[in-house]
Design a protein that fits this description.
By secondary structure, the protein is mostly helical. The protein has helices spanning about 1-125, 125-135, 145-175, 180-190, 195-210, 215-225, 240-250, 250-265, 270-295. About 80% of the residues lie in helices and about 0% in strands.
Length: about 300
């Protein structure tokens, strides 16, 4: 019995010891659990702080990266914009140059056709058309050689027109067709420069006009012929015909002086004696006219009677 009690006591003691051990274990477990909870809580706080730091760092990184990309984009955008503008300007200049070149080619083709047509006029001897069409060449894109050829063609055409007008005018004058002579000589003088030939043309034109009754213009043409030294061309009676024209125009004093000057200048000319005679006749006619004017009594003008009183 005692033995069993001892065993029971030992068992009880063992149970108590085990219970104490279990309690200690539980206490230790509880402490460990609390420690773990605290550790977990601290870890969570630390994690949240770390997460916050990570978020802030991420945010800062994102802002910095975005700012960097923005600056890079702006820089690149400005560079690309400048390159684009330069490319657009270069393209515009290229288009303008291409258009100018195309226009130049078109103008050159048009000028080449016009030049060929004008040269045909020169080659075919169509002098009046050469002269009339010369001004249209001013707007054409011609080479210096072409212009030199056309200038020479114009000069020869004008000379030919003058020669033709002179020859036709003199031929008409010699057959006493003064109207035709006037027309031909006028046409020739249109293209003539002042020269001995133009003075000869004015000489024949002046006489032709006088024969048609256009004394005033005839005097003008004969005076121009004399001023142009028509005598150097072998025509020495221009002053005689001018004096005759003065007579027909009624300018007797100028006619007498012109006859007298002609006779004194050309004493051996076949018209010299006639010029002296005409000058003397004009002077005698002038003196007779003056004498008759002095001797003819003036008509008496009756005196006016004073008005009768009313």
């Amino acid at each position: 019995m005692t033995k069993k009690r001892n065993e029971f006591e030992e068992l009880k003691t063992l149970i108590v010891d085990r219970t104490d051990a279990i309690d200690k274990t539980l206490d230790a477990s509880s402490q460990m659990a609390r420690a773990m909870e605290e550790l977990v809580a601290r870890q969570r706080t630390k994690n949240r702080f770390q997460q916050l730091n990570s978020f802030v760092a991420y945010l800062l990184f994102t802002v910095l990266l975005g700012t960097g990309f923005t600056l890079l984009y702006q820089s690149r955008s400005e560079s690309l914009t400048a390159a684009r503008d330069e490319a657009l300007l270069s393209a515009k200049e290229s288009r303008d140059q291409a258009r100018d070149l195309q226009d130049s080619q078109i103008d050159r083709k048009r000028s080449a056709r016009a030049a060929a047509d004008y040269y045909s006029l020169i080659h075919e001897g169509r002098h009046s058309e050469v002269i009339a069409g010369y001004d249209s060449l001013a707007e054409l894109a011609l080479s210096d050689t072409e212009r030199a050829v056309f200038d020479d063609g114009l000069k020869r055409a004008r000379a030919k027109m003058v020669e033709t007008g002179y020859a036709a005018g003199v031929e008409a004058f010699q057959r006493n067709d003064f109207e035709a002579a006037t027309a031909e000589l006028r046409r020739g003088l249109t293209y003539a420069e002042e020269s001995e030939l133009s003075s000869q043309m004015r000489y024949y034109l002046g006489i032709s006009l006088s024969r048609q009754g256009s004394q005033e213009e005839a005097i003008e043409q004969l005076e121009l012929a004399i001023a142009g030294r028509v005598e150097q061309a072998g025509i020495d009676d221009a002053e005689f015909h001018l004096a005759n024209t003065f007579v027909q125009h009624g300018r007797l004093n100028e006619a007498s002086a012109a006859f007298r000057a002609f006779a004194n200048k050309h004493p051996n000319h076949r018209f010299a004696q006639m010029a002296r005679r005409k000058s003397a006749q004009i002077l005698r006619a002038a003196r007779e006219r003056d004498r008759m004017a002095r001797e003819t009594p003036r008509p008496r003008v009756p005196a006016l009677s004073p008005p009768k009183p009313q």
